[in-house]
Amino acid sequence: MMEEEQMTLRRAVDWVHGARYAGQKNGLENMRALLRALGNPQDGLRFLHVAGTNGKGSVCAFLERALRECGYKTGLYTSPYLCEYAERVRVNGVPLDDETLLRLILRVKRAAEDLVARGECFPTTFELGTAIAFLAFAEAKTDWAVIEVGLGGRLDSTNVIAPRACAISAIGMDHMKTLGDTLEAIAREKAGILKHGVPAAIHPANGSVLPVLESAARACGAPLDVVEEPEILAESAHGARFRFRGETYEISLAGRHQVGNAALALAALGLVGGLDFAAVRAGLAKTRWHCRLEWVDGVLIDGAHNPQGAAVLAEYLRAHVPGRRVLLVGMMHDKQVEACAKLLAPVASRVIATRVDDPRAASAEEVAAAYPGAQTVDSLEDALALARADGGTVIACGSLYLAGAVRSLLRPGERLCL
User: Fold this and answer.
1) How far is it, in rounded angstroms, from Cα 381 to Cα 150?
2) Sign of torsion, CA 376 378 382 387?
């Protein structure tokens, strides 16, 4: 075991990542055991819980910024991170500082090692991260903590909380090996966050699986608010104005899909009740969410990594990015590379395939095979330089891991505060 006094933050984060699937087993008992060892820091916190396939991070960002604008101290737990691990745990929109993060990792490390000494399974990377977040929010005495599900819902390590309200964003085909190979099966897993007496808002795009969600809600006694489609009044490359339930709102996140995400956040906040909706309106307008159709130094960065996300990106490019388009693409091996390529290749003038720096990444050759005429450049730095030298608009996409790496190359050292 590494001596704690010798552990730097980088080595501590590496230790967290090293546990990726270490003690993975079905059920939530592993997570509950870890939290018990830490004194159940989640008890007493007020939570909003968000599941879904696409847009759940954006919904969380809208919720957090609106609550902060209402004067509350907020916590926000999301994944994955883009540039630094601390982004996964934010207090009032700011990633944890290095000293706090290291201290909390070491505290969780001691608890995890004690569990193993007693014959328990070693926690997974995501279980460790969830425990770190709950400790941080308890220590900061947050008024509200917004929690994004990591994978699925029913067996996700975040599903140990007692939320005040839930939201389920757009459900699509992703993580099929774990969640099931039909929309209905995936919806059942997402619906696992629903709880007796806890109201939940449902994204308007979920009509096809609404019977599954309604059945799950009836079974557990969760009141549902099925959100209707908002009316888009105006849209630009950088945001939109829309009408929802008799009120007009503006957002500064790009893409028509973000209007639905904002409406879902508004519905969830309505379930909480007692909020100043003038402040909520201001919070929505100020919401930032990095690497989701984000322009950085002339490069469009988007974390789209499944067919639904690729379709949104293609629609945005057709509507708002005329002229020559250069796609810089890198994806994970377990994603639907060919399905995404069918949507994105028609809007690309040139495609440069690269490899994301992750053990689960697809090779540049594997990505390029899905795009006729694509070039391969293994080094992301070289691939970005080649794309920018083309003269067309560069679009970096295919993975949030790629998106974060590209953003770090363009803005090295920048902390992603919300």
Assistant:
1) 29
2) positive
Residue 21: half-sphere exposure toward Cβ, Cα within 13 Å = 2
Is-cis flag, bond preceding 80, omega within 30? yes
Give the model confidence (pLDDT) of 120-163 as tens digits: 989 999 999 999 999 999 999 999 999 999 999 999 999 999 99
Q: What's the Cα-to-Cα distance from 50 to each of 176, 180, 298, 399, rounded to whole Å?
A: 19, 20, 32, 21
CA 245-67-309 angle, 5° bins: 70
In angstroms, the Cα distances linking 217 to 77, 182, 201, 391 are 25, 19, 11, 52
Walk across the sheet containing 375-376 and list its strands. 294-296, 299-301, 393-397, 325-329, 350-353, 375-376
261, 266, 289: which is closest to 279 by C-alpha? 266
Per DSSP, 128 falls in state H
For residue 403, what are the contacts with CB-CB under 8 A and spacing of at least 6?
A: 82, 291, 301, 302, 303, 396, 397
CB 406: neighbour CB atoms within 10 A? 26
Q: Tell me the per-residue pLDDT of 286-313, one tens digit each, with 9 for 90 and over.
A: 999 999 999 999 999 999 999 999 999 9
Q: Please provide residue 331's backbone torsions phi and psi, each rounded to the nearest 5 degrees.
A: -140, 165
| Degrees to nearest 5, angle at CA 299 with 296 and 301 | 80
Q: Rounded to an integer, what distance in angstroms lies between the CA atom of residue 346 and that of residue 340?
A: 11
What domains can you pick out in the chain, each with its CATH number? 4-286 (3.40.1190.10), 294-410 (3.90.190.20)
Cβ count within 10 A of residue 362: 24
Which residues on neighbouring strands pair with residue 168, listed in sequence order? 51, 202
Q: Which residues of 123-132 are buried (b: 16+ CB within 10 A; e: fewer)?
A: bbbbbbbbbb
Q: Is the pTM of this model over 0.85?
A: yes
8 Å CB contact between 343 and 314: yes
